[in-house]
Amino acid sequence: MHRCPLTGTRSPEGRTGPRGRTGRPRSAEADRAILGATRAALVELGWGKLTMSDVAARAGVAKTTLYRRWANKNELVVDAVAVLFDELELPDRGCLQADIEGVVLQFAALLARPETKTALMAVVAESTTDEALRLRIRSAVVERQKRLVVLGRERAQERGELPPDAAGEEGAAAAGRAVGLIFDVIAGAVVHRALVSAEPVDELWAQQFSTLLLAGLGGLAETEAGPPARSAPDGPGRPRGPQTW
Q1: Burial class, 175, CB count within 10 angstroms (exposed 0-12 / middle 13-18 / buried 19+)
Q2: How far apart are CA 199 and CA 192, in angstroms?
Q3: E strands, 4-160, where?
Q4: Centroid of chain to Cα 134
Q5: CA distance linking residue 25 with residue 49, whole number of Å
Q6: Each residue's pLDDT tens digit, 168-177
Q7: Is 140 exposed, middle or buried (0-12, 13-18, 19+ CB in 10 A)?
């Protein structure tokens, strides 16, 4: 059981929301074998030595089977990474802060797996000189995983922890910006902590991070509502009243 720092209520940690996965209308068993073989080959051989022929041999399928599904190695490796991130779920722990902590810890555990770490770092490195690969990462990984932020905001709004989105096109646009920014902050912080700094993403760090993020969400709502009115300064360079950062 987990006590929510915002509401003080208890809820089972095992509850999860809808998965929202996407898939290809073909043999799931063959896909799993191919994508698993791709990740295993990446860990063993690295990006430079990985070939479609090697993946086909490891998966026990014909090379033509791979090319019917993926045009090249780049597409194959991105999909091999993407299905790992599809394993992430947003636990329903009863309040937004606890939900954030849960998904952060899940994300860090996923990044700690050698197959995830190797595959993710390989495609990110290659994408620095390959625009098509960068776009595929965005569509197959980033845009798909924003579902977690969308679900988290919806739950928090239903609980009254976050204000509802404004109506109309402007409200939808503001919600889209908020989802993108929240995803960037969470993904960027956890990836940097786990893979760049190589520091632990433990329960204490997740709690401190979620506290910081929630404080920022309040400021984000204020910026979407428009800049606050400024009062006249008391003296040179010293504005009167509290500041909104």
Answers
A1: middle
A2: 9
A3: 10-11
A4: 16
A5: 30
A6: 999 999 999 9
A7: buried
What's the rounded Cα separation, in Å, for the pair 154 and 77?
A: 32
Instruction: Give the tokens for residue 115.
Output: 């197959």
85-115 b/e (C-beta count within 10 Å ≥ 16 → b): bbebbbbbbbbbbbbbbbbbbbbbebbeeeb
d(CA 208, CA 216): 13
> CA–CA separation, 19 vs 9, rounded Å?
25
Distance CA 111, CA 89 (A): 14
- Encode pLDDT of 198-227 as tens digits: 999 999 999 999 999 988 776 565 555 554
Q: What is the β-pairing status of strands 233-235 and 2-3? A: unpaired
Q: Which amino acid is at 77?
A: V
